[in-house]
Design brief:
With about 575 residues, the protein is of the alpha+beta class. It has 18 helices and 13 strands. Helix 3 crosses helix 17 and helix 9 runs antiparallel to helix 10. The longest helix has about 30 residues.
């Protein structure tokens, strides 16, 4: 190949650093017209932030405007910038953050304090105002509400666990040692040569530990026992400065002194752990509100538990309609609390209840079906065993769901045609406090039945089943709804609606672990994530439909006139 020049000179574009501008533009003019930061800026300018303002006490030095700090945080979560230090850096370097902040530079402590304290009880109100904008513009119509849950790891140390079973065992061990010491003191007191005190008086054995009485159960009772022992010993001590207590009395005094020094602090520590547990199976020492749960994306790949929170999210068209944070791993026990919060958010915003609720089999319980029926919401909720029932794959050859029930005669029919009549009823209380009525049906004679080994394997003479008729009726209604054409569409839509939101948060945004501690901190971060998700989806739809963004000099919206209002309001058209 020839190295001769082609005869054409290379031309470069002008490159001049530090060149002054005759008419310097504003920062906003340098941002593209269709940029998502304009949407966030105009939407927050139109919000009512009185609840956020009420968190300021006043006095002292001036504060940064809460609208500016809120814009920085929301846009930061939209752009996957979650650290307060990185947000502080962006306010110096990123032109969008500089425009939102008015070229002010709040420090990371200021940003984090606003997020942690000012938004702890007000982020839900900000989220509700964004939701109201989406409803007014027709993006959310509250026809369908798709619910699902996911586990999100806490910022806590993964190995700082406290288990309820261990606390109960250690507490029982301390109480047993305390009971042994009290019994020894009683024995020494009974062997004392001095005359016994009056029956029923402060020096009797009954005042320490009565005959047949269970060991003391808490630190308060132990303190009272120690006080009674010391009072008795003080009354039995001989008077005068020269007299000394007997060996028995001295030993009793020494044993009684061990209780508040060695055992009582341990007992109080275990009681404090029980208070922090609050009925949970575990908690983390570095984040006491987090509960150890089993997650799908285990970092060690061996099914190890991690400190997590259970996030319940309801969506429509991949917009988050509401979110709640729970400390229990079971989705079925979180549903009623989540729906109560959702209905409260919609009611406070003046919005209607959703027409339908769709959820997977993790939410199908008698209590949840009854709740939706009372609220007048149509339930497209699967129940446990729904998929196996559809595919015909059961662990047992003749499950009780497959047995025919005769409503007129109130009996079930076993595989051999034998009638199973009702033999009793009982009440069951679930972990959430819901009381179910259970009916017990039993076959008349299963001895010698050729299907006995396949029908049931219990040691009982005849097969018995326990069933709730109310739950059976709810399941039948849910089955009919889910098998309809409308129900099949909703089942498919649920998979691509709420599941996509979890994928967007965890995979696209890379947010897999909270940064703040405690329920309040987690709620703030989840609220900012939900707002960021809705703004991102909102901006993508506007860009796909080529709806122009607000110009840099247009006036901001207010509560009466939304500058970002969609040209054709879908709700008005539907009305």
């Amino acid at each position: 190949m020839s190295n001769k020049p082609s005869g054409r000179g290379v031309v470069f574009k002008p490159y001049v650093q530090d060149q002054g501008w005759l008419f310097p533009p504003t920062i906003g003019e340098l941002i593209p017209a269709q940029h998502k930061v304009r949407l966030i800026n105009e939407a927050i300018d139109g919000m009512d932030l009185d609840k956020v303002l009420s968190t300021y006490k006043g006095g002292g030095t001036s504060s940064y405007p809460p609208k500016m700090l809120l814009k920085i945080l929301v846009y930061g979560y939209v752009e996957k910038v979650y650290s307060s230090r990185m947000l502080e850096k962006a306010c110096h370097e990123n032109i969008c953050f500089m425009w939102l902040s008015g070229n002010q530079h709040p420090g990371h402590n200021t940003i984090n304090s606003f997020r942690k304290h000012r938004l702890s009880n007000t982020v839900k109100d900000v989220f509700a105002q964004v939701l109201l904008l989406l409803v007014e513009q027709g993006y959310v119509q509250l026809k369908d509400y798709y619910v699902d849950g996911t586990k999100m790891e806490s910022v806590a140390n993964r190995y700082s666990f406290v288990w309820a079973k261990n606390v109960a065992r250690y507490k029982a061990s301390v109480l047993e040692k305390v009971a042994q010491i009290l019994a020894h003191i009683d024995e020494l007191s009974s062997q004392e040569d001095s005359p016994p005190p009056d029956p029923g008086g402060p020096g009797t054995k009954t005042d320490v530990l009565a005959e047949g009485e269970q060991p003391l159960s808490d630190s308060k009772a132990v303190r009272e026992a120690i006080s009674r022992i010391n009072s008795r010993l003080d009354s039995e001590m001989p008077g005068g400065e020269d007299t000394k207590p007997s060996k028995s009395q001295a030993k009793q005094k020494r044993l009684a002194g061990k209780l508040p020094k060695d055992h009582l602090p341990k007992l109080e520590g275990y009681e404090e752990q029980e208070r922090l547990l609050g009925g949970r199976s575990s908690y983390s020492k570095t984040d006491v509100d987090a509960t150890f749960m089993r997650t799908k994306d285990d970092h060690l790949g061996n099914g190890q538990l991690r400190p997590c929170y259970n996030l319940q999210v309801g969506t429509e068209q991949q917009f988050i309609v509401n979110y709640t944070v729970h400390q229990t791993a079971s989705d079925i026990s979180c549903f009623v609390a989540h729906m109560d919060d959702t209905l409260g958010v919609l009611d406070n915003a003046g919005l209607k209840l959703p027409d339908n609720v769709c959820a997977d089999a993790g939410y199908g319980s008698e209590q949840n079906y009854e709740y939706l029926e009372e609220k007048g919401i149509e339930a497209y909720v699967k129940y446990p065993g729904y998929h196996k029932e559809q595919k015909g794959k059961h662990k047992h050859a003749f499950p009780q769901q497959a047995l025919h029930y005769n409503e007129e005669g109130d009996y079930f029919v076993c595989p051999m045609g034998q009638h199973m009549h009702q033999v009793g009823q009982t009440k069951e209380k679930t972990k959430t406090g819901y009381i179910r009525t259970i009916h017990i049906y039993e076959a008349q004679n299963c001895e010698g039945c050729p299907l006995r080994g396949q029908c049931f394997k219990a040691k009982a003479q005849n097969r018995a089943i326990k069933i709730s008729h109310k739950a059976r009726q709810y399941r039948q209604k849910a089955k009919e709804r889910l098998q309809s054409l409308k129900g099949q569409r909703k089942k498919i839509q649920r998979n691509i609606d709420v599941e996509a939101v979890f994928g967007h948060i965890k995979q696209d945004r890379g947010f897999r672990r909270f940064m703040l501690q405690g329920l309040k901190g987690v709620n703030v971060e989840m609220g900012l994530l939900a707002i960021a998700n809705n703004f991102t989806k909102w901006h993508n739809l506007r860009r796909a439909k080529r709806i122009p963004m607000p110009g840099p000099h247009q006036p901001g919206p207010n509560n009466a006139q939304i500058a970002l209002e969609y040209p054709q309001n879908a709700l008005k058209m539907a009305a």
